């Protein structure tokens, strides 16, 4: 059964898991590792000494894929349901994807949203609206080096939250790398509306799109000008919360978790780099960085080995929070390379439709004006058609009365006293 979380319209302040799963035909198992040059990267780093906070639905620390490498922090929903069968479905899968890339890293699970199978799911609505900001601050204060957020908001307007932004700012100032899934609303044929999603849209968050084996955008992956990079997001075998094994899944959630794993490799090897420097090497070494930026996949699919090699050449920069003196266009000192604006191109069908509509409206307006003027002219002419007062009033318009017509068969009237007229 296909599950597309984030698909239905939700209420303001709602966060949902940004992943989907599928049982359709898929590429070879484990294709994502060579696609990101992970085996080669493992000769340089495996994530030693790094803690990745998975801000999600909670995790099952006893799952064989996570066991011994994961701990769980507070439940920011303040619930008491860890023993339930559905607990930690999405979060456990995301944690396993991080560890597949960074096998020697540690996971810190933090719950901020409910799983879809949770009876209290309520479309993803949070019982604690401050859960995300609280989790980010907690992760920062408890040793997290990377924060992975495979979650996203869905609202009719937006779900920008000042507290969440300040928490992200705080984490960046402490040198923590943050990543977010762009969302699964990019397929219009499946009802996607490509809505803006937070926290991935916040400045300072590395936004991750989902890619396919050929490096193109996965059809469900949302398209936005704040997308930074892409990572594999289809047919990824993740930990299955219902068993001790794995199951195939897809989504920008998975792509985000895999990208967080690559970030952990970089931070492990070069711990003094600022967050923006980690983003920089991910972008500059991505698959189509040399060809330029795309709102679909950012600078392209991550190349873990190339990113590590590029990181070796950098001099660590001072960690600067958003808004401080010396920051660049987005965050950190200097420009992070992301365009201020990005052209989405012209939809000529819509432009043509708008032009036809405008022309039609103009014709209706001109026709109405002509009818109005015609009505005023007829009103001035009056009921007889000859102007005010009828046809006898035409002299006022400068016309001369016509002479009476003489009947050619009628004799002229004789002068007085002459009758009958002379023949």
TrEMBL record:
SUPFAM superfamilies: Subtilisin-like. Residues 47-300 form the Peptidase S8/S53 domain. InterPro entries: Peptidase_S8/S53_dom (IPR000209), Peptidase_S8/S53_dom_sf (IPR036852), Peptidase_S8_Asp-AS (IPR023827), Peptidase_S8_subtilisin-like (IPR050131), Peptidase_S8_subtilisin-rel (IPR015500). It comes from the Bacteria. Residues 411-423 have a biased composition (Pro residues). The active site is at 56 (charge relay system), 90 (charge relay system), 253 (charge relay system). The chain crosses the membrane at residues 348-372. Residues 1-25 form the signal peptide. The keyword Protease applies. Keywords: Hydrolase, Membrane, Protease, Serine protease, Signal, Transmembrane, Transmembrane helix. Residues 380-423 are annotated as: Disordered. Belongs to the peptidase S8 family. This is S8 family serine peptidase. It comes from Streptomyces doebereineriae.
